[in-house]
Amino acid sequence: MIIIETFQVYGETYPYEWIRFDEETRLWYMGRVTCTGSVAYGGTCQCISHDPEEEWIVGREEVKQILQDLLDKGQAFDLSEEEIESLNSPSLEDKVMEKLALRGFSPEHWKEELEDWLSSSYKIGLNPLPALRKVLGGDILVLFKHQDDYSFFSLEEGEEALVVTLDSDDCTVDVEFIEE
Ligand SMILES: [Zn+2]
């Protein structure tokens, strides 16, 4: 956890704002204490009708900006190997998942949700790929293929792509990642 701000209760120092990398979901979260009077922070509030803290997903670019701001303020931070790898060389899957999670897709079931979204669009005769490419941004290559199309995708060496495979019979969709 990287502490951004702290606050004090009875001489004890607690994190007030933070960012953290979640190894399960492979996403970054920003958090903030919303009840500084909480028993969790040395106060007396039981936090019955509210949460003592809140967290939300932040993108890697935003995390880097926050770290830059800390650097500018001369504040030290410590990054684990996993955190460095996540910021420095995220996999294509991590990048896609982050973009979708920021749009409200579930971090655990984003792939099924994406396939359902694409499949529903095809079922009513709409092409969802322009919208998907817009959501993912220009640096993520999205390729389309039909179920029985075995033609070769000519990717450059080291190039990666998200492949959307459509089964024309029942409009089911399969999403996978390929790398040359
Ligand atoms: Zn409270």
Strand order of the largest sheet: 1-2-3-4
Radius of gyration: 21 Å
Please outline the major beta sheet.
4 strands, antiparallel
Mean pLDDT: 94
Count of individual beta strands:
7
In total, how many domains does the architecture comprise? 2
Q: How far is it from the N-terminal to the C-terminal residue, by CA? A: 35 Å
Bound ligands? zinc ion
Task: Please provide a written account of the structure.
The structure is a single chain. This protein has a four-stranded antiparallel sheet with strand order 1-2-3-4. The chain has helices at residues 60-72, 81-88, 92-102, 110-123, 129-136; strands at 2-9, 12-22, 27-33, 53-58, 142-146, 160-167, 172-179. A hairpin with a 4-residue loop joins β6 and β7 (172-179). It folds into two domains: 2-89, no CATH class; 110-179. It is of the alpha+beta class. It contains five helices and seven strands, in the order ββββαααααβββ. The structure holds zinc ion. Zinc ion binds at residues 35, 37-38, 45, 47, 50, 52.
